[in-house]
Amino acid sequence: MHCDSEPVTGTYPDEPRLALLTHTEARETVALLRLLERLDPVGRGPAAGQLAADLARRLSAP
Q1: Domain residues of the chain, as ranges?
Q2: Distance (Å, rounded) from C-alpha 45 to C-alpha 36?
Q3: What is the pTM assigned to this prediction?
Q4: CA dihedral over 49, 53, 59, 60, signed as positive or negative
């Protein structure tokens, strides 16, 4: 893997950035992760459940 030693420079816009996920998208993601947890209890299900719980704690109440 090649890594540049020069620092990253550039200009960035002043306008506010959009969230990576909307509130609705985040809630849908949590629901899908919980479904994956139930469907795959011995594979990646536990990790999906943990990720769902972590994300759900960061969401504001509806």
Answers
A1: 23-58
A2: 6
A3: 0.65
A4: positive
